[in-house]
Amino acid sequence: MFRILLGTLAVVLAAASPAHAQSLYMVSAGDSGLVLAERDSLRWRDGRSQMTYHVIFRTPMAFEKTSGRGYDWVQGMTTRVEFDCATRLFRPIQFSFFNFTQTAIERFDGDQDWATLADGSDLDRVRALSCENVLPSETHFPSLADAAFIFYGVVHDADDGS
């Protein structure tokens, strides 16, 4: 029910705001959050693909600031990942946390070590979109802000039993 409601709301919102639409496709939605693959971010080079995916946390988290004092409230994270499509290896190349205005709070750059994908994982579905153009679902969101708005509304209703 949760996924059906989320998908229905996303389709309605996507139809209503095409002017500044992104191509964000739902990879999964569950207890930990909403995972979205950003199709427009796809880049190819030398048999490898790169794509960005986002995770909107079900419950925002407080992270201690690295500069200054206090905490930042983090709504989610964005990761740019590189896939070796022939070998099913991947590595993160950029990572950031974002706040409620989708502004990056902390950003980490630099290639990490290659690792093997787990079959059927969220990241494997991101790879399928990146390497094989297989959509992870038909649920599409026009923007990260819209996805967060819909996701938190559905989560709130589910938590209330509505």
Structure description:
With 162 residues, the chain is α+β, with helices and mostly antiparallel strands. 27% of the residues lie in helices and 43% in strands. It has 3 helices and 8 strands. Strands 1, 2, 3, 4, 5, 6, 7 and 8 form an 8-stranded antiparallel β-sheet that branches. Strand 5 (89-98) and strand 6 (104-109) form a beta hairpin. The longest helix has 17 residues, at 144-160. The termini are close together. Mean pLDDT is 83; it is low at 8-20.
Name a few traits of the molecule.
alpha+beta, 8-stranded antiparallel sheet, 3 helices, 27% helix
Mean pLDDT level: 83
Write down the oligomeric state: single chain
How much of the residues is beta strand, in percent?
35-45%
Shape category:
globular
Total of helices: 3
Helix content: 25-40%
Query: Gyration radius, to the nearest Å?
Result: 16 Å
Uncertain spans, ≥5 residues at pLDDT below 50?
A: 8-20
Distance between the termini: 11 Å
Condensed summary:
The protein is α+β, with helices and mostly antiparallel strands and 162 residues long.
Helix-strand blueprint:
Elements: H1 2-16, E1 24-29, E2 33-45, E3 48-64, E4 71-84, E5 89-98, E6 104-109, E7 115-116, H2 122-132, E8 140-141, H3 144-160
Antiparallel strand pairs: 1-2, 1-8, 2-3, 3-4, 4-5, 5-6, 5-7
Helix pairs in contact: 1-3
